[in-house]
Write a structure and sequence with these properties.
single chain, about 90 residues, alpha+beta
Length: about 90
């Protein structure tokens, strides 16, 4: 179910020599549990599915471009981390 709390997000970007990481921290846990569960399991069915396609689009686009998507979930925050190879200069 969707949280009724107002979303409070923090975006952190770090760049290494060969990778870039974008981390979106949801401080009020407004990302639905069903969306996180479906994404973590990398599958959906009639009993386990998300509410929308937003996280699936992030996952598919990231995976198609050689990156990874991971989720950190604790009692206070949820974080979606996207890691991609860094493009070479001039591309």
């Amino acid at each position: 179910m969707y949280s009724r709390a107002s979303p409070t997000l923090r975006v952190e970007v770090t760049a290494e020599d060969d990778t870039v990481c974008v981390c979106v921290v949801d401080q009020n846990q407004t990302i639905p549990n069903a969306d996180l569960s479906a994404l973590e399991q990398r599958t959906e069915d009639v009993f386990n599915h998300g509410y929308g396609v937003e996280l699936w689009l992030v996952y598919w686009l990231t995976e198609q471009n050689g990156g990874t998507v991971s989720i950190e979930d604790d009692r206070e925050t949820r974080a979606l981390e996207i890691e991609l190879e860094r493009a070479e200069s001039g591309q």
